[in-house]
């Protein structure tokens, strides 16, 4: 402890600083079916919008389409495809210190000491981290449609959690 201008400041050495993200030995988990589906749909949307933009009539049919309209159609298709590709973002990276869960829009780090368990409730589409006060956080990187892969992912997370909690 040191005194600076009447305030007590606790100094931490690098060893005492808790980790805020996975280390270099982290296990990375990603959904397989969701990833493939997102990419296939994004490519199909881009092809569909390109065809529609190409087939827009150039002659006067009551509505006059210009090249700018065709470009706008492709831009709209790119936005729709980009939105679909957000579904390809889910990932979980875990090591002995904790787990980083990246879902569609957010990324959060949970030290294993804050996690009560890893569960996959019946009928759920994805796994979840059980947290204190009856809260939970979804882990979209572990999807039920991946079947055997999802089972392996949940077992991996449970093993890492058990090792961190018991110290073995």
Fill in the keyword field for this structure.
three-stranded antiparallel sheet; 3 helices; 9 strands; alpha+beta
Using only C-alpha atoms, the radius of gyration works out to 24 Å
- How many beta-strand runs? 9
Largest sheet: 4 strands, antiparallel
Main β-sheet, spatial strand arrangement: 3-4-5-6
Q: Report the uncertain regions.
A: 7-14
Supply the number of helical segments: 3
As a percent range, the share of strand residues is 15-25%
Residue-averaged pLDDT: 86
Rough outline:
elongated
Structural class, from helix and strand content? alpha+beta
Overall helicity: 25-40%
Distance between the termini: 33 Å
Per-chain topology:
Blueprint: E1 2-4, E2 7-9, E3 27-29, H1 33-55, H2 67-85, E4 91-94, E5 98-102, E6 107-111, E7 117-119, E8 126-131, E9 135-143, H3 148-166
Antiparallel strand pairs: 1-2, 3-4, 4-5, 5-6, 7-8, 8-9
Helix pairs in contact: 1-2
What does this structure look like?
This protein is an alpha+beta fold. The chain contains three helices and nine strands; from the N terminus they run βββααββββββα. The chain has helices spanning 33-55, 67-85, 148-166, and strands at residues 2-4, 7-9, 27-29, 91-94, 98-102, 107-111, 117-119, 126-131, 135-143. A four-stranded antiparallel β-sheet has the order 3-4-5-6, covered by helices on one side. It has a three-stranded antiparallel β-sheet with strand order 7-8-9. β7 and β8 (126-131) form a beta hairpin. α1 runs antiparallel to α2 (67-85). The longest helix has 23 residues, at 33-55. The protein is elongated. The model is unreliable at 7-14 (pLDDT under 50).
């Amino acid at each position: 402890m040191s005194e600076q201008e009447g305030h007590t400041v606790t100094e931490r050495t690098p060893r005492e600083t808790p980790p805020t993200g996975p280390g270099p030995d982290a296990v990375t988990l990603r959904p397989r079916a969701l990833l493939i589906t997102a990419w296939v749909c994004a490519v199909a949307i881009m092809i569909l919008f390109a065809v529609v933009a190409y087939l827009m009539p150039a002659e006067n049919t009551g509505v006059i389409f210009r090249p700018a309209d065709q470009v706008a159609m492709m831009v709209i298709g790119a936005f729709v495809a980009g939105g679909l590709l957000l579904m390809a973002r889910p990932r979980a990276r875990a090591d002995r210190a904790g787990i980083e869960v990246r879902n569609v829009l957010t990324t959060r780090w949970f030290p294993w000491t804050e996690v009560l368990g890893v569960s996959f409730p019946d009928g759920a589409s994805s796994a979840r981290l059980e947290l204190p006060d009856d809260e939970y956080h979804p882990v979209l990187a572990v999807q039920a449609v991946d079947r055997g892969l999802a089972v392996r992912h949940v077992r991996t997370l449970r093993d890492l959690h058990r090792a961190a909690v018991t110290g073995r």
